[in-house]
Amino acid sequence: MANENKYRDTAAAILPLVGGARNVASVAHCMTRLRLGLHDRTLVQEEQLKALPSVMGVVEDDTYQIVLGPGTVARVTPEFETLVEEERAAAPEPAAPAGGAAPDAVTADDLAAQGAALRAERKARNATPFKLLLRRIANIFVPLIPALIGCGIIAGLNGLLVNLGWLPGITPALAAMASGFMALIAVFVGYNTAQEFGGTPILGGAVAAIIVYAGVANVEAFGQHLSPGQGGVLGALGAAWLAVQVEKWCRRWVPVSIDVLVTPTITVLVSGLVTLFGLMFLAGEVSTKIGEAANWLLSHGGAGAGLILGGLFLPLVMLGLHQALIPIHTTLIEQQGYTVLLPILAMAGAGQVGAAIAVYFRLHRNTSIRRTIKSALWPGFLGVGEPLIYGVSLPLGRPFITACTGGALGGAFIGFFNQLGTDVGSTAIGPSGWALFPLLDGDHGLGQTVAVYAGGLVVGYLGGFLATYYFGFTKTMLADLNVAPAQSAQDTATAAGPTSVKDEAPAPAGVPAG
C-alpha cells in the first residue's frame, strides 16, 4: 500500500505541473518515459517539474516526455491516468499559468532548459516524413520490448544451467518459456502494425500468423518451398501493412450491409496470397542479407566499424534516425538468437557516464550541476542516459561531443574482439549499461562474452572521462560555469572576465561554438 501511495503521489505531483487534466490530450509510456500529449505546452511548469524527486529529466518531442526510469514509469502511468479521469469528472477550474520568474543564477536547470529548447526547435524543423515513418515503425516494436527482455533473461538463465549441467528436469521448460514468444513474434508485429496504421489489429495479426504457420512448408514460391517463419518480422510488418490498405479500400467500397462478412474475408485472402507468393520470399531474402551484412561489418570492419557505430549512435538518437535500427535488432535476434549491434551501441551510454564524471570534477564549484550529476549518475550506469544527456552534456555542447568520443572508443574495443571471432550480443533490446549483463550472449561462452562487454564499458568510461576532462571545456566555459550558484552577479562577472556581464547571459547557447 505504501508503494502504491508513492506512485500515486508522484502522479499527483506531476499533473498540476503539466497544466492539469484539461491540458492532457493523451497518456502513454515507454521503457523509461511518461509520454503526454498536451494541448498547450506553455502551461507546463518545467522547472518545478524537474525539481520533483522522481523526475530524472524532461524531453520535448512530438509528445512531452517525463523521464521517470524503468519500472517506476509503468506504475506511475496508470495512477496518472486515473487522476486525469477523476479531475475531468470533477470539472475543476483551469489552473492559471505559473509565473515565469527567472532564476537568479546559472544552474543545472538553466542549462538543461536551454539545451532542451534548442533540441526541440531542431526537431521541429527536422520533422520530415521519413523520420515520422521511422517513429511509426518504432511504435510497432517498442511495446514488444518487455517480452523480449523477460524471455531473453530466461534464455540466458537456461543457457547457464545447461552449461553447468544443473536442473536437467527444469531446463526444457525454461527453453519453452524463452522461445515461445520469439516463435510467434511475427503475430505480435502484425497486430501492432495494423493498430499503428489505422487498421483492425486482429486482422493484421491473422495475416502475419500465416508466416509462422507450419503448413507454409507445402507452398512453393519462386521455385522454392517456403519455410515457416521465412521473412520474419519484416515480412509480418509488410503483410500487416498491406492488410491495412486492403481493409481501408474495402471499407470505402463494400456496402455496409455485407461489410462484416466481406471486408475481413477479402483482407485476409488478398494480403495472405500476396504474403505467401511474394512477401515471404522477398522479406526472407532481405532478412538474410541484414544478418550477413551485420556479421560481415564486424568481422571485417572490426574496431573501425565499432568506432563509427559507438561514436555516431547518440547523434542518430538526436536526429531520430536510431529508430530504423529497431527492426534490424529484432531481425538479428530472430535469426541468430542475439543482436551483435546493441552491445556496441550501448557504449555511447558509457561515454556519457565518463563525460559526466569529468564535468563533475571540472566544475567543482558549481554545486547545482554537481548535484544533478550525482542524482543522474547511477541511472546512467544502469543504462538510463536521458538525465545525463539532456541535463548535462547536451546543453553544454562540447562535453556531448567528447562523450561520443568515449562511446566510439568503447565500440572500437568490442568491435575489435568481434573481428577476432568473439561475438558479443544481446538477446533483447531496450536495456543498456549494467542492465545489459543478464541479456548477454555470444559464441565463446558467457564468461568471455561478459568480460569483453565489461572491458568495453571501462574503455567507454575512461575515454569519455579523459576526452571531456582535457578537451570538453574552453577557458571561457570554465569561467562562466565553474562558479557557485549562490555567488553574486558581480562576483560572477569578475570571475568570468569582461566577456561575461552576468550569469543570466545565454552562455550555454554559445557553448557549442566555443
From TrEMBL:
Record field: transmembrane: 140-161, 173-191, 198-216, 258-283, 303-326, 338-361, 450-471
Keyword Zinc-finger on entry: no
Keywords per UniProt: Cell membrane, Kinase, Membrane, Phosphotransferase system, Sugar transport, Transferase, Transmembrane, Transmembrane helix, Transport
Domain of life per record: Bacteria
Entry-linked SUPFAM superfamilies: Glucose permease domain IIB
InterPro entries, alphabetized: Glu_permease_IIB, PTrfase_EIIB_Cys, PTS_EIIC, PTS_EIIC_1, PTS_IIB_1, PTS_Sugar-Specific_Components
Region (Disordered): 493-514
Domain PTS EIIC type-1: 135-487
Record-annotated PTS EIIB type-1 domain positions: 8-90
Membrane topology recorded in Swiss-Prot or TrEMBL: Multi-pass membrane protein
Subcellular compartments: Cell membrane
One family name in Pfam for this protein: PTS_EIIB
Main location class: membrane
Name of the molecule in the record: PTS transporter subunit EIIC
Protein species of origin: Streptomyces nigra
